[in-house]
Amino acid sequence: MGVDLRLASQRIENLATEKVRVNIWNDEDEVRGWQESAREILAVERPRETSIYNLSQWLKDYYTRLNPLSNYRMVYSDLLGWALACVDWREIAEGFIKNEELELE
């Protein structure tokens, strides 16, 4: 009986994504800013998948740059960097795009 590494990896990714999503949605200023970004992207980007991809890249770049430990060489900086790399930024971006589409209806 071995460990299913694919399943374990998926669970870690889901956990990292959920933690980031919850932290973003608990900060009204962050939500407002990302909704504005989603609105701007939807105004110029087509198709929808391109909008989601572009917003996911903005999210990933923003939070990766905010990593307070990125300039340090230690286990904590490696772990935080790894956790951020596990986040499904597309899933988070899709939530903002979907929310903005609902607002436009």
Can you tag this structure with a few keywords?
105 residues, mainly alpha
Helix amount:
over 70%
Poorly predicted runs are none
SS elements, strand count: 0
Radius of gyration: 15 Å
| Main beta sheet | none
From the structure provided, what is the oligomeric state, counting identical versus distinct chains? single chain
Order of helices and strands: HHHHH
Based on Cα principal axes, name the global outline.
Answer: globular
* N/C terminus separation: 51 Å
Mean pLDDT: 85
In short:
The chain has 105 residues and is mostly helical. The chain has five helices and no strands.
Task: Lay out the secondary structure.
Elements: H1 5-25, H2 28-44, H3 48-65, H4 75-86, H5 89-104
Could you characterize what this model shows?
The chain is an all-alpha fold and 105 residues long. The chain is built from 5 helices and no strands. It has helices spanning 5-25, 28-44, 48-65, 75-86, 89-104. Helix 2 runs antiparallel to helix 3 (48-65), helix 2 packs across helix 5 and helix 3 packs across helix 5 (89-104). The longest helix is centred in the N-terminal third of the chain and has 21 residues, at 5-25. It is globular and about 45 Å long. The termini are far apart.
